[in-house]
Design goal:
The protein has one domain. Helices cover about 75% and strands about 0% of the residues. The chain contains 3 helices and no strands. The longest helix is centred in the middle third of the chain and has 48 residues.
Length: about 100
């Protein structure tokens, strides 16, 4: 808006109203005037950033676990496929009823 000669044309170009542009301008000026973030808000932001970091680490660990188990299942499936193709008897852990 600072470099614009026709605010109405700018509003039409952006698909909004002149009133909305002035509202945004006032909000931006208010934010620039209050550069200092209150301590309570900064503390909350810090806690959320720490939690976010912790959750990202947990997600990475779980992704590694999933990859490990996928690989293990693929190996088991390959071994079973190989045994069934060769005519070998599959090993089982079932106990026989007597």
């Amino acid at each position: 808006m600072k470099g614009c000669d026709n605010v109405g044309a700018l509003a039409r170009e952006l698909g909004t109203s002149r009133r909305q542009l002035y509202k945004w301008k006032d909000q931006e000026e208010a934010l620039q005037g209050s550069e200092e973030i209150p301590a309570a808000v900064q503390s909350r932001i810090s806690k959320l950033e720490q939690e976010n970091s912790r959750l990202k680490k947990l997600m990475a660990e779980k992704a590694l676990e999933v990859d490990f188990f996928k690989g293990a299942l693929q190996k088991v499936a390959a071994v079973r496929q190989k045994k069934s193709d060769s005519g070998e008897k599959e090993s089982t852990n079932r106990s026989k009823k007597q």
